[in-house]
């Protein structure tokens, strides 16, 4: 899984705001008018991600490995992601 595809998924598909300041690139999700920390990547990550890097990205998104792979490969839609994410985060759907 290429880091560029993950970045495009976070910013494009999920609409996350990207903050490149500091030691990492942080991604913030907008949900029901509130901003939530979505995930983070290191500035130095290039090419294919290893399992450890994937774990660091998917954990704050409340996804397992298969769900994260589906999110990046496109079968998991934006709406399905936010349904899973909000339920697992304990947020109410409006």
Could you explain the architecture of this structure?
By secondary structure, the protein is an alpha+beta fold. It has one domain (3-89). Helices cover 43% and strands 21% of the residues. Strands 1-2-3 form a three-stranded antiparallel sheet. The longest helix is centred in the last third of the chain and has 12 residues, at 78-89. It is globular, with a radius of gyration of 13 Å.
The unreliable regions are none
Please give the number of β-strands. 3
> Biggest sheet, in brief?
3 strands, antiparallel
| Radius of gyration from the alpha-carbon trace, in angstroms | 13 Å
Q: SSE string, helix = H, strand = E?
A: HEEEHHH
Tally the helices.
4
Q: What characteristics describe this protein?
A:
about 90 residues; three-stranded antiparallel β-sheet; alpha+beta
In short:
By secondary structure, the chain is an alpha+beta fold.
Topology:
Blueprint: H1 3-13, E1 17-19, E2 24-31, E3 34-42, H2 51-58, H3 65-73, H4 78-89
Antiparallel strand pairs: 1-2, 2-3
């Amino acid at each position: 899984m290429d880091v560029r595809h993950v970045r495009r998924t976070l910013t494009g598909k999920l609409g996350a705001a990207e903050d490149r300041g500091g030691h990492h690139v942080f991604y913030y999700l907008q949900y029901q008018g509130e901003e939530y920390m979505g995930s983070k990547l290191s500035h130095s990550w290039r090419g294919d991600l290893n399992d450890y890097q994937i774990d660091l990205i998917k954990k704050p998104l409340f996804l397992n490995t298969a769900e994260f792979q589906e999110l990046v490969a496109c079968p998991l839609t934006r709406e399905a992601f936010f349904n899973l994410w909000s339920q697992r985060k304990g947020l109410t759907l409006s």
